[in-house]
Design goal:
The structure holds two protein chains of two kinds. By secondary structure, chain A is α/β, with parallel strands linked by helices. Chain A contains 17 helices and 14 strands. Chain A has two domains: 159 residues, Rossmann fold (3-Layer(aba) Sandwich); 241 residues, 3-Layer(aba) Sandwich (Rossmann fold), CATH 3.40.50. Chain B has a single domain, classed as Alpha-Beta Barrel (TIM Barrel).
């Protein structure tokens, strides 16, 4: 199983493609051509790497989390700190590239969808930096869950449009953004936020996010002289996961583990575990796994994390799952929030709830490996800490009942850490 | 014998006019009324009926059609209801197409859907989010069952893509009058006439124009240069303007006016 890194789309195995109205094909073709040229162009490369260094603050460090790791069977846990990027998540990696590309092809306006608001904030930031007009579509339900990010986007000069159709979450925001794009495609770039959607987005976003894994692979090798046992990341659409997985695709000894949002539980009907519980179909322009009923109608997903609350997933993940190169597991809201509290208390890092799914996955995986006979000192788990949790404090207050000296969830986390 | 959309358009042409094509989603406001609405449209002069298969994520539809589709889904409409509606409407003798996003067809099974659609007397499919490049399975199934394959072209389509789409289509090519989603507009896109001419030059036998066509005046204008005039949102809005018989009457009046509009162009 080698050469997986070379996959370029439009198809990844049986997944991917372009299931969109003809009206968008010319724009998608133009974008493909522009990206093929830009990524070979040293001037573009220098401009982008300069921004990533001087504006975003790359490379992001890796941080060892020994107190947290006690609850993961005592294995070594390394955090790839995308939370330290400007704007607080990995999303900025992608939007700076796409905004530069927008300027390069002479368009003056960007639009984007957002779930948790991280991609919207990142897009609004890049638009401000580069003087582009910016409209962000966000499900009305999400504007309520992530009011702080709505305010941030407006401060950055973006127009935020609450979407009231359907389930009023990320999938509906994507529908609305596509409607805007098909109408305004001559002036407007759709800065897609994840590795889903029609070709070339899965490839384009992957190319812009793979720096996460490229840096991390080298950092782990430099510091520890070995590759990690497993790389763990949360998967909604899957951009931070592809970003950190990609550099390791052709390292067959490195396990790749995607953590999907299992909401109330993987065996309930309220979750967003697309690969674990979904079936192949077409949504938002690509063939991939999705949550659908027997008539092919999309089923609404559920997760405490707005950024993972999506019934689809990027086609490259569906492919990696189908060939067995990556595995995907469900992490419930409760497991994610426990990991959220634990990392905060043990390491002084408040993670995004999205990233907390990966942390919970690492806790479970570490224990399983040790129970399976691995020596803890031989196991290194590299976790994508894709974003910071400032935006999630409101949710944490509700979950833990943080008004009167801490709730039961936090005491549980304390005991865990001191064990 | 199933009436194809090509035959319906050719018969209209023989009468010296463009064909009138009316879109109505199955299950809006309920399955029985939507079937009655399609019959009403045929009686009032529609040559071709497009029955919409409601879908949860209708990315190419504007607010009127999207809301109707959502209402139909909320009412519990199923793919089987659409096939049932096809049978009922095709029995009127009108060419009856299904307009659908691809995933419900994929989920049903492309070959099985084609078989059941043909058995119900359906003429074929209009596929707004399926381009010929991705349509291998559907094309094979449609060919096996003698179904119309109606693909879309848009003002942004290149000459190469117009040729590809014209060659892949059977029945007619659906020309989107403007860059945008379905919905009523004050004027039909000025690029529509040019797109029709370009699509014909690319080899299309019949080209019908939709998106934004909502009044008799629009119908007259479009019928002056296209082989067919497609009306969707305005028909859905008329049907939804009042419950029961009043909505059906409003739809019948609208379709009658549109048909007169089409005939005016033929007489000119």
């Amino acid at each position: 199983m080698t050469g997986l890194r070379a996959a370029q789309g439009p198809y990844f195995g049986d997944f991917g493609g372009r299931f969109v109205p003809e009206a968008l094909i010319a724009a998608l073709d133009d974008l493909s051509i522009a990206w093929d040229k830009a990524r070979e162009d040293p001037t573009f490369g220098l401009e982008l790497s300069g921004l990533l260094r001087d504006y975003t603050g790359r490379p992001s460090p890796i941080t060892e989390a020994p107190r947290f790791a006690r609850s993961a069977g005592g294995v070594r846990v390394l955090l790839k700190r995308e939370d330290l990027n400007h704007t607080g998540s990995h999303k900025i990696n992608n939007v700076l590239g796409q905004a530069l590309l927008t300027r390069r092809i002479g368009k003056t306006r960007v639009i984007a969808e957002t779930g948790a608001g991280q991609h919207g904030v990142a897009t609004a930031t890049a638009a401000a930096l580069m003087g582009l007009e910016c409209t962000i579509y966000m499900g009305e339900e999400d504007t309520r869950r992530q009011a702080l990010n709505v305010a941030r986007m407006r401060l950055l000069g973006a127009e935020v449009v609450p979407v009231t159709a359907g389930s009023r979450t990320l999938k509906d925001a994507i529908n609305e953004a596509f409607r805007d794009w098909v109408t305004n495609v001559e002036t407007t770039s759709y800065v897609f936020g994840t590795v889903a959607g029609p070709h070339p987005f899965p490839t384009l976003v992957r190319d812009l996010q793979k720096i996460i894994g490229e840096e991390a692979r080298q950092q782990v090798l430099d510091r520890y002289g070995t590759l990690p046992t497993a790389v763990v990341a949360c998967v909604g659409g899957g951009s931070n996961a592809i970003g950190i997985f990609h550099a390791f695709l052709d390292d067959p000894d490195v396990a790749l583990v995607g953590c999907e949002a299992a909401g109330d539980g993987i065996d309930t009907d309220r979750h967003a575990a697309t690969i674990s519980k979904g079936t192949p179909g077409v949504l938002h322009g690509a063939k991939s796994y999705l949550l659908q009923d027997e008539d092919g109608q999309t089923i609404e997903s559920h997760s405490i994390s707005a950024g993972l609350d999506y019934p689809g997933v990027g086609p490259e993940h569906s492919w990696l799952a189908s060939i067995g190169r990556a595995s995907y597991r469900g992490i419930s809201d409760a497991e994610a929030m426990e990991a959220f509290a634990l990392l905060s208390r043990t390491e002084g890092i408040i993670p995004a709830i999205e990233s907390s799914h990966a942390l919970a996955g690492a806790l479970a995986l570490g224990r399983e490996l040790v129970e399976g006979g691995a020596r803890p000192e031989d196991v290194t788990l590299l976790v994508s800490l894709s974003g910071r949790g400032d935006k999630d404090v409101e949710t944490a207050i509700e979950w833990f009942g943080l008004t009167e000296g801490g709730g039961p969830g936090l005491r549980g986390a304390d005991e865990e850490a001191d064990r | 014998m199933t009436r194809t959309s090509g035959a319906a358009i050719d018969d209209a042409r023989a009468q010296g006019r463009a064909a009138l094509v009316v879109y109505l989603p199955v299950g809006y406001p309920d399955v029985a009324t939507s079937i009655e609405a399609a019959r009403t449209a045929v009686a009032a002069g529609a040559d071709v009926v497009e029955l919409g298969l409601p879908y949860s994520d209708p990315g190419m539809d504007g607010p009127v059609v999207a809301a109707a589709a959502q209402a139909a889904l909320d009412g519990g409409v199923r793919t089987a209801d659409v096939l049932h509606a096809v049978e009922q409407v095709a029995a009127t003798g009108a060419a009856t197409l299904v307009m659908t996003y691809y995933n419900p067809v994929l989920r049903y099974g492309v070959e099985t859907f084609a078989r059941d659609l043909a058995a119900a007397g359906g003429a074929g499919l209009i596929t707004p989010d399926l381009i010929p490049d991705e349509a291998g399975e559907w094309v094979a199934a449609a060919d096996a069952h003698g179904l119309d394959k109606v693909f879309l072209v848009a003002p942004s389509s290149t000459p190469e893509r117009l040729e590809l789409t014209a060659a892949a289509s059977r029945g007619f090519v659906y020309a989107a009058s403007t860059m945008g989603v379905t919905g009523e507009r004050a004027t039909v896109g000025e690029r529509a006439a040019e797109l029709v001419a370009r699509t014909r030059a690319a080899g299309a036998e019949r080209v019908c124009v939709g998106i934004g066509v909502s009044t008799a005046e629009h119908a007259t204008e479009v019928a002056g240069y296209a082989d067919g005039v497609i009306v969707g949102s305005a028909a859905v809005r008329a049907l939804g303007s009042a419950p029961g018989p009043d909505g059906l009457a409003a739809l019948g009046e609208l379709v009658g006016r549109l048909r007169a509009g089409v005939e005016r162009a033929g007489a000119a």
